[in-house]
Write a structure and sequence with these properties.
heterodimer, A: 251 residues, Ubiquitin-like (UB roll), Fumarate Reductase Iron-sulfur Protein, Chain B, domain 2, 5-stranded mixed sheet, two-stranded antiparallel sheet, 8 helices, B: 634 residues, Flavocytochrome C3, Chain A, domain 1, 5-stranded antiparallel sheet, 17 helices
């Protein structure tokens, strides 16, 4: 059983600092003391930032919002791995107790493809939105939908669509890929919509437009490296990419 | 007295009457009207997409990097609709009644009836957009039950319904961006509403990357900026969720309705460390199969719960509310949890938790079925607490979650400021003094997909096209004020971080204007908040004087507005001298701790206006179709 503990721990953080997209970056090291093992990693950064503020030093810019692993806002590379060493979680779901023996954590922004560092650990991921604009939707306007149960979706198909739709758009797949490809992100949306009966009508156009947009945005091509799958916090599988490739061949 | 402009006619005909008599704008003229939408969660994204589809010139703002981050994404359990697919007696009338009763007879009949009517279309549209709702083997839609109802009308996508609905709205929005009807502006936070002659003329935004203030004029402004639970500091809301847009609108003349109606959600993961930055909710759907209990004897509090015998367990919800059992509405379940903890029966290290136990469900249904229903929630719990809910019962405690109060709107969702529409959690319209589970997603989408596309054109047709120039004086005035505030903050030389001040505000509000409120406590809270308000600038220190991307400057702007809001929340709670729904005044309770309403004096909406000091006006609630009764779930 977990009990609130008065235990505290300390950890060294080596963090990428970069004032603006144009400026040069560098690493800066901090020691965070007296942090509860029950605190999250982001809370450890919060308290470091409060300290830096009171010392008139520039706090570390990082992005986060829901802090429960669903909005996709947060994320940085921890000791060389996007979202850190544990599978199936986002950065905001990491707790200090997981790092009691770590000693040092190296934090860097998600780099890859067209992601550009905005400040410290924050990167520009707007390219992902533009891939969605190219075809990540079903063209149905408000008011024109048929009665919901007139579209039957077999349970297993709904489950499969859900597994792909679970993508949170965090960009870890891009940061992990040696090519800086956004293939897992793109394929997940293609699969979610293409396998549902509602999405069939425009599946060919969707596949082609989204894959083209991915390349035009400056993301790399997929060469089946598989790093994306291992870091995906929502465990979206490499098989999703195979599906999109097949759809692409027939489109 | 304020007029909500409810259409004439039978309850079931009002919306139809409004739609068929509302004014229209012809397709070729629509692009000439510029509509500003602030916020891109369920309500904002669906409104922007739908108005874009009609051909209006829409500009949508979000402070996130992408619309997909909005906190609607975190809603877990589901969305209500009176489809009656289960053949279990559901109907529009019943959803209407459940919602009115759930809100403890403090909402407008006409609005709630319309919401129940529209619920059917929402499900149709979301399925068409590709939401992967849970299905039966035959391919039809599955449903489950939620608190405060005795039918199964909640549609869901595992424990991530909000995410899937938000992504559907986001995709509809991005389709309009690609079509050129919607211009999407991320990283921009609204910092002021520009009002001239009681008409909304546009907004002032701060670009969060460059720090620049920018002016946007429009023919109308739609606020879809969410709720204000973060006034409590620790809540289930996302870290950035804030009340600045609605508080700025209040400061510019919009009425703020029922600010004290705030919902404390019964099933959240208890606080575990001093540095805790937010609380995480566990879906109410868990109460479908989980049983809530505490040990009967305080001496057993620290004992391994698996070793506490059946006869030594107090299933207090089942015992106190036998007909609804574990599925009582949220306000009642939260207060009951507080009551047993106050009785000294709470578990966990601080005695501030109750058990939510799945052992029976796992025995009855098998691990697979339980996994299918709640798998992701179990994983989430384990990640946060480090404890395995398959072995130990979960520990839960109530936390601030949803705010029923918000800007006052009439039947068309327009505030008293002309051309200012307010939708989703940001308005006060449909949930009265307590919101039922799975109704927030329903309301956000009803407002955005199906109400705004009728009420906005109706307004524009009568107001006509009259966009103000962005270099006009009224914009100068607003920009000057905000520039000064920012300058003051950047120069502030206090010895506290903004977080620290926010934490002390949160503590005042949680202790004295939270789950249980007394006149004495509220008066103390008011004094403390007024001190905080006066001293704010001298207390805080902003990190570096960087005008560009500056996290603590953003927070300071938000906390300043939370403090103003806290003041009217407390004043509202003092004025509402009754207990109703989530507003529990200790002076008004039965001997067994149930709320006592006072319909004679308080069957009304309390609306606050900023006239130097907060000033109170009211809207009477007329119950023509439902007779307010004692709200019993026993």
């Amino acid at each position: 059983m977990r009990e609130v503990t008065n235990r505290s721990m300390e950890i060294r953080l080596k963090i990428w600092r970069q004032e603006s997209p144009e400026s040069n970056g560098y690493f800066e090291e901090f020691l965070v003391e007296n942090i509860s093992p029950e605190a999250s990693l982001l809370e450890a950064l919060d308290s470091l930032n409060e300290r830096l503020t009171l010392e008139n030093r520039r706090p570390i810019s990082f992005d986060s919002d829901c802090r429960e692993g669903i909005c996709g806002t947060c994320g940085f590379v921890i000791n060389g791995r996007p979202h850190g060493p544990f599978p199936g979680v986002t950065t905001c779901q990491l707790h200090m107790r997981m790092f009691e023996k770590a000693g040092l954590l190296v934090l860097e922004p998600f780099r890859g493809g067209p992601f550009k560092v905005l400040k410290d650990l924050i990167v520009d991921r707007s390219g992902l939105d533009r891939i969605i604009q190219a075809g990540g939707f079903i063209s149905v306007s408000t008011g024109s939908a048929p009665e919901a149960n007139s579209i039957l979706v077999p349970k297993n198909l709904a489950e499969e669509a859900f597994n792909a739709a679970a993508c949170i758009g965090c960009g870890a797949c891009v940061a992990a890929c040696p090519n800086g490809s956004a293939m897992l992100f793109t394929a997940a949306k293609i699969k979610h919509l293409n396998i549902l009966p509602q999405g069939k009508a425009e599946s060919k156009k969707r596949t082609k437009n989204m894959l083209d947009a991915m390349i035009n945005e400056g993301f790399g091509a997929c060469s089946n490296h598989g790093e994306c799958e291992t870091v995906c916090p929502k465990r979206i599988s490499l098989e999703t990419i195979n599906f999109a490739f097949k759809e692409g061949l027939s489109s | 007295m304020i007029d909500p402009k409810i259409p004439d006619g039978e309850l079931s005909k009002k919306w139809e009457n409004f739609k068929s008599s509302s004014s229209l704008i012809s397709p070729s003229n629509r692009r000439k009207f510029r509509i500003i939408v602030v916020g891109t969660g369920l309500a904002g994204a669906s409104a922007a997409a739908s108005l874009g589809e009609q051909g209006y010139n829409v500009v949508a703002f979000t402070y996130h990097d992408s619309p997909r981050r909005a906190h609607s994404v975190a809603a877990q359990g589901g969305i209500n609709a009176a489809k009656n697919y289960r053949n279990d007696g559901d109907s529009i009338l019943r959803l209407f009644y459940d919602t009115i009763k759930g809100g403890d007879f403090r909402s407008r009949e006409a609005n709630v009836y319309r919401l129940a009517e529209i619920s059917l279309q929402i499900i149709d549209h979301c399925v068409a957009l590709g939401v992967p709702f849970a299905r039966e083997y035959g391919g039809t839609l599955d449903t489950r039950s939620f608190g405060g109802t005795r039918v199964s009308r909640t549609f869901y996508a595992r424990g991530q319904t909000g995410q899937q609905l938000l992504l559907a709205c986001y995709s509809a929005l991005e389709r309009q961006v690609a079509n050129g009807t919607v211009k999407l502006l991320p990283f921009k936070e609204m910092v002021d509403l520009v009002v001239e002659g009681n008409r909304a003329r546009g907004i002032l935004v701060r670009d969060l990357l460059t720090g620049r203030l920018e002016r946007y004029a429009g023919d109308c402004v739609i606020l879809a900026t969410g709720g204000y639970s973060n006034v409590y500091y620790l809540s289930t809301n996302a870290k950035k969720s804030n009340a600045t847009a609605i508080v700025r609108a209040y400061k510019r003349g919009a009425g703020f309705a029922n600010p004290c109606f705030t919902q404390i959600h019964p099933t959240c993961i208890p606080r575990s460390s001093e540095t805790q930055s937010k609380l995480t909710l566990m879906s109410e759907s868990l109460r479908n199969d989980g049983r809530v209990w505490v040990p009967k004897d305080p001496s057993m509090r620290a004992k391994d719960p698996r070793e506490i015998a059946e006869k030594d367990r107090f299933y207090y919800l089942e015992e106190w509310y036998p007909s609804y059992g574990n599925l009582t509405p949220r306000d009642i379940a939260s207060r009951a949890a507080k009551r047993v903890c106050d009785m000294g029966l709470g578990v966990g290290p601080l005695g501030q938790a109750v058990y939510l136990d799945f052992a029976d469900a796992i025995k009855r249904l098998g691990k697979n079925v339980v996994y299918e229903r709640y798998g992701n929630l179990f994983e989430m719990y384990q990640l946060i607490t480090g404890e395995n809910p398959w072995e130990f019962p979960m520990k839960i405690y109530p936390a601030p979650h949803y705010t029923m109060g918000g800007l006052w709107v009439d039947y068309t969702l327009m505030s008293n400021v002309e051309g200012l529409f307010v939708i989703g959690e940001a308005n006060f319209s449909d949930h009265g003094a307590n919101r039922l589970g799975a109704s927030a997603l329903m309301q956000g989408l009803a407002d955005g997909f199906f109400i705004i596309p009728y009420s906005v054109p109706n307004y524009l047709a009568s107001a006509g096209k009259n966009t103000l120039a962005e270099d006009s004086k009224i914009f100068d005035f607003s920009e000057k004020q905000i520039t000064n505030t920012i300058k003051d903050f950047l120069e502030a030389d206090g010895d506290k971080t903004v977080e620290e001040v926010h934490r002390s505000l949160g503590k005042i509000m949680w202790d004295k204007c939270g789950m249980s409120r007394s006149l004495t406590g509220l008066k103390e809270a008011l004094e403390e908040v007024l001190v905080l308000k006066e001293k704010f600038k001298s207390l805080i220190r902003i990190s570096t004087n960087d005008e560009r991307l500056n996290d603590s400057l953003e927070k300071a702007m938000r906390v300043k507005d939370f403090i103003d809001l806290a003041e009217i929340m407390i004043r509202d709670a003092i004025e509402r001298d009754e207990s109703c729904g989530a507003h529990f005044r200790e002076e008004h309770q039965t001997s067994d701790g149930e709320a006592i309403r006072n319909d004679e004096r308080f069957a009304k909406v309390q609306i606050w206006f900023d006239r130097g000091e907060p000033a109170l006006e009211t809207e009477d609630l007329k119950f023509e179709f439902v007779k307010p009764s004692e709200r019993s779930y026993k």
